[in-house]
Amino acid sequence: MRKRLGVAVAIVLVLGTVGALAAQRGQDTVQGHVAAAKAAAGKDYPNLFARLCAPPEPPAPAGGAARQAPAVPDRSTWHVEPAKVFDNLYFVGQSEYSAWAVTTSAGIIVIDSIFGYSVEDQVVGGLRKLGLDPTQIKYVIVSHGHSDHSGGAKFLQETFGARVILSAADWDLLDRAAEPRPKRDMVATDGLKLTLGDTTLTLHITPGHTLGTISTLVPVRDNGQPHVAAAWGGTLYNWVRNRAAYITPDRPDRFWFDTYIASARRFRDLAASAGADVVISNHTVYDESKTKIPALAKRKPGDPHPYVVGSDAVGRYLTVAEECARAGALRASGN
Question: What is the pLDDT of residues 24-71, one digit of tens each?
Fold first, then answer.
């Protein structure tokens, strides 16, 4: 009798704990949203969760000296070898910052151009190492106007005549940036279909990280099998630390958090509608490229593709972004 009573009490305690966690995830509290984000991240996106849901660092000092372009770091700190990821998608970025090359029947589309100091080595040199011709770069999609993604666009524009694409808001952002920056070229609009040869990418304006961040849906193939990659264009909540560049009377913290949350939810729906089952990022830490690219090198025939995570996992990636932003908004409001 005592044994049965003990088992019953244990079951009640377990069910109570599970119920409490479920209730917590449904609460509009910092802890509730962090719990929801952690559940969404699971084992797939630990770094995304850790970076977005961590309590913010103190804001950068106001009124300091103008931000200067960093000195060129030693090549050994950023150089990595390029990699073929899908039949028509190649990684040509550096250790922390991604650039992607989409090959088509009529040329190459580059997504993000990394820094001015590394673009020739990583993008141009990387394409050549992969047996591809950089003179065939026709378009450069810049996800947003920060130098770690836009810095190499001028070189590709001037060297190969590539058309550079940003949103209108982020062309304006680049106008205020230090050199190098490309001359104004194509303006991305929401839902823009960019077709080159046999391939069409769809660009969506997903403001938050910047006012004109572009997130892209990319058709890819693995040994001829079609998949769709979702590229979330901007990840961190930069307004929390770099307040001088973001916060104004009409654009307080709540504006940026709400804008980001709405974009994450919308792009999650768009990715689901497109059947996206792959996540790629413009930072190697967020999509776990640092482990997935080495895993590709060891992949044997019949093994699953490390980047093909399924539609559920794509949705969970964007849920992490949304739920951590909700937690951030409550932290900012003091709740």
Answer: 445 899 999 999 999 999 999 999 999 999 998 887 765 443 344 457
Task: Report yes or no on 304 lying in a domain.
Answer: yes
Sign of torsion over alpha carbons 126, 130, 135, 140: negative
Question: How many domains are contained in the chain?
Answer: 1
CA dist., res. 117 & res. 122, Å (int): 10
Q: How far apart are CA 193 and CA 198, in angstroms?
A: 13
- Which CATH number is 135's domain given? 3.60.15.10
Q: How far apart are CA 27 and CA 30, in angstroms?
A: 8
Do the strands 89-91 and 83-86 form a parallel or antiparallel pair, or are they unpaired? antiparallel
Report whether 182 contacts 90 (CB < 8 A): no
Query: Residue 18 — φ and ψ, nearest 5°?
Result: -60, -45
pTM assigned to the model: 0.90
Instruction: Give me the domain span that covers residue 260.
Output: 77-333
Domain membership flag for residue 146: yes
pLDDT digits (tens, 9 = 90+) for 174-201: 999 888 899 999 999 999 999 999 999 9
Residue 24, class by beta-carbon neighbours within 10 Å (0-12 exposed, 13-18 middle, 19+ buried)? middle
Report the side by side order of strands in the sheet with 278-280: 192-196, 199-205, 214-222, 225-231, 278-280
